Amino acid sequence: MKRLAFISILSFLFFAGNAQKYMTKNGFIGFFSHTSMEDIKAENNQVAGVLDISTGEMVFQTLIKSFHFDRALMEEHFNENYMESDKFPKASFKGKITNLSSVNFSKNGTYEVTVDGDLTIHDATNKISTKGSIEVVTGGINANSKFNIVPEDYKISIPGVVRDKIDKSLGVIVTMKYTPLEKK
Amino acid sequence: MKTYVKISLFVVIFIALSAILAALYLFNLKHKDLAKAKPDFVISATLLQKAFEDNEKTASGKYINKIIEVSGKIASIKAVENNIVNISLVTGSDLSSVICTFPSITDLSKFKDGDEIILRGECSGYLMDVLLNNCAVIKDKKK
Fold first, then answer.
1. What is the pLDDT of residues B85-143, one digit of tens each?
2. In chain A, which residue's Cα lies nearest the Cα of B96?
3. Average pLDDT of B45-63?
4. Do B125 and A65 lie within an 8 Å CB cutoff?
5. Do B127 and A75 count as a contact with CB atoms less than 8 A apart?
6. Which helix or strand (DSSP H or E) is residue A162 part of?
7. Which of A68, A114, B22, B131 has its CA 20 to 30 A from that of B45?
C-alpha cells in the first residue's frame, strides 16, 4: 500500500509530462489540539507534494516520524503508541481541486478552492473535502488549507486517561510552496 | 515501633516525591542536543542516500531513529515555516537528496549553496529523499 502510494507519486512525476507540474519537498503540515487541560502542537516541514495545474490533481506524502513536538516524550508516544510509525511510516493524500476553472494560473493572486480526495493515515483511508486557497506568485504557487480530522476515523486509539487532554477533532494546517518541476 | 513507623512514612513520602519529580522531568524533557550526542553512524550524504535507494528496507532498519553524522555539499537552503530551515545535500542522485531540518533556533545564515557541511540528525526514514530531523551543525569546512 505504502509502496503503491510512492510509485503513484513517482509515476505522477515522470509519465504525465512535466510542463504543468509543480512540486515541493519542503512542504509544511502542522496539527494542533486545544483542550482546557493542555495545548499540543506538532510540525512537519518535510512534506513532498505535487500539483498538476492542468488537471488540478494534488498528491502529498510525508513520514509520520517527521512530525516534531516540543516535548520529546510526547513525540515518542505519538510514534509508538498512537501512530505506530514503525508499522505505518507514511501518510498520504491524493485528491483534486474541484473548481479548477476559478483559478487563473497565469495571473498572480489568491483564489479560493475546494479540494476533494482520499487521506490515508495509519493505514486507514477516508474521503475528505476541504476549502483552501491557491496563491499564484511569481515563480511558484502556494497552497494553503485548514481542516479538522478525528483520530478515531483513522483507527488511532487514544486511551481513556489521556483522551480528555487531546481534542476530539484535531486542527490540521497545510502550507505548500510549490516551484515548477523542471525537466532534467 | 514508633521510630519504625516514622522511618517507613519517610521512605514512602520520599519514593512518592521522587516518582512525581521523575514523571515531571520525563514529561518536560526536551529533545536531545545532537551537537553533544554521540553519533550512531558517520557517513557521507551520497552513501546514505544510496543505502536507502538500493534497499529501503535494510537501510530503514539500520538507520531510522538513529543519530547520523552526515557530511556533504549543500544543494539548497530553504526557509520553511516558523523560522525553520531545511538544508538539502548533494547526493549521487538528481532526484533524491538528504533533507535536514534544523530547530528554529539554529543560525544557518553563514551557509550558502555549494558549501561543505558536517551535521548530525535523527533519521526519520526515506520518502523521496532521506529525511533527517532535529539537526545540528558539527563543522563547516570552508573551501
1. 999 999 999 999 999 999 988 889 999 999 999 999 999 999 999 999 999 999 865 54
2. A25
3. 96
4. yes
5. no
6. helix A160-163
7. A68
Measured between beta carbons, which residues in chain A are less than 8 angstroms from residue B81?
Answer: 28, 30, 43, 45, 175
- Across the interface, do A73 and B27 touch by the CB < 8 Å criterion? yes
Residue A184, pLDDT score: 44
Residue A41: band (very low, low, confident or very high) from pLDDT cuts 50, 70, 90 = very high
Question: What separation in angstroms does the CA of A113 have from each of A5, A27, A77, A104, B87?
Answer: 24, 19, 35, 12, 31
B31 contacts on A by Cβ (under 8 Å): 72, 75
**Could you confirm whether domain A2-180 is CATH 2.60.260.20?**
no
* Interface touch A72/B65, C-beta < 8 Å: no
Reply yes or no on whether the pLDDT at B76 is more than 90: yes
Residue extents of the structural domains in chain A: 2-180
Cβ contacts from A onto B, under 8 A: 74
Task: Quote the CA–CA distance of A80 and A74 in Å, as a whole number.
Answer: 10
From CA A48, how far away is CA A67, in angstroms rounded?
Answer: 13
Chain A residues inside the 8 Å CB shell of B88:
25
Nearest CA in chain B to A75: B31
The verdict on pTM exceeding 0.95 is no
Residue A140 grid coordinates: 511558484
Q: Which residues, 6+ apart, have CB-to-CB distance to A8 below 8 Å? A: A59, A94
- What would you measure as the largest C-alpha separation in chain A, in angstroms? 53
What is the C-alpha to C-alpha distance for residues A46 and A51, in angstroms, rounded to an integer? 16
Round the average pLDDT of chain A to a whole number and report it. Answer: 91
Cell readout for B85 is 530551515
Chain A residues in contact with B27 by the CB 8 A cut-off are 71, 73
Tell me which residue has cell 538507520. B63
